[in-house]
Amino acid sequence: MSKRRHPTSLRTSSEDVAVSRKAPDTPQTRSAAYRLAFADDEFMTSEDTRGVRFQLEYLKPEFRLREHGINSTVVLFGGARIPEPGKPAWAAKNETQRRNLEAASRYYDEARKFAQFASQTAASMDFKEYVVTTGGGPGVMEAGNRGAADMGAPSIGLNIVLPHEQAPNLYVTPDLSFNFHYFATRKIHFLMRARAVAVFPGGFGTLDEFFESLTLIQTGRMDRIPILLFGKEFWTKVINLEALAEAGTISPDDTELFTVVDTAREGWDVVRQFYNLPQMSEPTWRGG
């Protein structure tokens, strides 16, 4: 975070934290009651301060994104288990999964290329608009951050703490690599700046992110933006929104809230036409 501060004659909280840690060792100073409230991990992680933690987890990324002048984003959702082409399907539990995941590796390349298109546009706007954002993990998320890195562009990673250890992928811009405890605050940051959402094949998390985006638009809680489903063959097997429309549980025109595409060029053309953006040349593939 920025070290800038407004002129003041008052001591800072960080100065007092440092001083309090040098206090004489007595029964009073050893007591949890004596700790400065904001420097007391036990207090700050208690059930009673959950609301404060929600606020802090919203504010920290918000302040940093503002510092970087990032006004809008292009969000990529998709499976962490989809491998890079030519790499083994590390998450496969049987031969059928291995075969299908390795075949799905083509979406890694499409996600990478889609992020390149977005980053070309971001470059023309001083990297303040259309900045690539992912969940920061492997698979499709890695491909998105990698596509931005191919173009020398910054990209955002919104990781979340999971029961199994997971580090951000190496293509996320370090200063824009965030970690969350609450899914709710993470979802806010995914969508509050989003100018487009690209959804690649994935599992429960991807489905959750797709349906939440649709619901916010359907209910008028979010402006309509391009929602792209990559992979017609995959999605027509996995979901059948036409059946919901026939059943009357959604409106017939709700199936028009998203567009199914198969290639990065198709997807970016939808975004470009929606916002009347300039035509971009085919990105030059950089690196291996």
Structure in words:
- It is a single chain.
- The chain is of the alpha/beta class and 288 residues long.
- Helices cover 42% and strands 11% of the residues.
- The chain has 12 helices and 7 strands.
- Strands 4-3-2-1-5-6-7 form a 7-stranded parallel beta sheet, with helices on both faces.
- Helix 9 (204-218) links the parallel strand 5 and strand 6 (227-230).
- Helix 4 packs parallel to helix 8 (183-191), helix 6 (106-123) runs parallel beside helix 7 (140-150) and helix 6 packs parallel to helix 12 (264-275).
- The longest helix is centred in the first third of the chain and has 18 residues, at 50-67.
- The protein is globular, with a radius of gyration of 22 Å.
- It starts with 12 loop residues before the first helix and ends in a 13-residue tail after the last helix.
